[in-house]
Amino acid sequence: MTLRIGIAGITGRMGRLLVEEARAAGAEAGLGTGRPGSASPLPEGAERAADIAALAAGCDVVVDFTNAATAQPHAAALADSGKPWVLGTSGLSAADEAAVAAAGRRIPVVYAANFSPGVNLVLAMAERMAAALPAEQYDAEIMEMHHRQKVDAPSGTAVGMGRAVAKGRGIDFEAAMESGRNGHTGPRKTGAIGFAALRGGQVVGEHTLIFAAATEHIALSHRAFDRRAFATGAVRAALWAAGRPAGLYSMMDVLGMR
C-alpha cells in the first residue's frame, strides 16, 4: 500500500518541496495544513486539512516544518493520533522539547536539527573530534549564516553542532554554551562552546565548527545550496518511521549511524 505523507505547513517553501520529494519517492502527498489566515495557494493536487488532528487522521505519517509555537499542540495531537511524526522545526524551548520527548513515548518521533545527510555526517564527526581534542587546548567556536527572514538564533543545526561537541567532551551543553557576546565580556572561558549568528540575503544555510588551539585551527564546514536537501532527507525519515515502535529517534537512526 502506498504510504500517505501528510505535510504540516504545506503552503510554505519547505512544504512545496516536501510534496515534490514525497511524490518522487512513490508516496502520496495530497493533504496538509497551512498557516491560519494565509492566502497562499496549495500545491497542485493537494487539499487543506482543518487542523493537525484532521491531518493525522488522513495520512500514515506527518512531516512537520512549521514553527516553534506549534510544537506542544502538535505533540499532543499526534501522540493521540498514534501516527509517526517527523519534526524539523527549529527554535524549540526546553518545554517544547519535553513535549516532543513525551510524544516519543507513545509514537515514533524523528526529531532532527537538520535532515540533510551531509549535516548529520558532520555532526557525527564533530562529536568524535571533540572527544579527541581537549577543551583545555582546543576552543570550540561555531559560526552560522542564514537568510534574513530566519527568526531564531543560533540555528537548530548550530545548536546541534554544539550538542555534538558537548557530548564528545562529556559536558553539559547548556552550561558550556556562550551566545551573543557583546561589550566587555572578559577572557574566554576554558571549555566554553561559542556561537556567532549571521543573517543576510537569502543564504539557505552555512555552518562552520572551529577547533582553535595555539598551534593550529581545524574547521569543519557544511553549506546548503538548496532546501531540497532537507526535504529529501525528511521524506527518507518518513518512509523509515512508518511501522517503527514508539521512540524518540534522530536522523542518525534513519541513516543507520547508531
User: Helices and strands: which structural class?
Assistant: alpha/beta
CATH fold assignment of the largest domain: Rossmann fold
> Average pLDDT, to the nearest integer?
95
Instruction: Give the C-alpha Rg.
Output: 19 Å
CATH H-level homologous superfamily name of the largest domain? NAD(P)-binding Rossmann-like Domain
Which percent band covers the strand fraction?
15-25%
State the strand order across the main sheet. Answer: 3-2-1-4-5-6-12
Total of DSSP H or I helical runs spanning 4+ residues:
9
CATH hierarchy, class of the largest domain: Alpha Beta
- Poorly predicted runs are none
Overall number of strands: 12
- Inertia-based shape: elongated
Secondary-structure element pattern, one letter each: EHEEHEHEHEHEHHEEEEHEH
Separation of the first and last Cα atoms: 29 Å
Helix content: 25-40%
CATH architect. name of the largest domain: 3-Layer(aba) Sandwich
Tally of individual domains: 2
Q: Major sheet, described briefly?
A: 7 strands, parallel
How is this structure best summarized?
This protein is of the alpha/beta class. The protein is built from nine helices and twelve strands. It has two domains: 4-115 and 227-254, NAD(P)-binding Rossmann-like Domain (Rossmann fold, 3-Layer(aba) Sandwich), CATH 3.40.50.720; 117-224, Dihydrodipicolinate Reductase, domain 2 (2-Layer Sandwich).
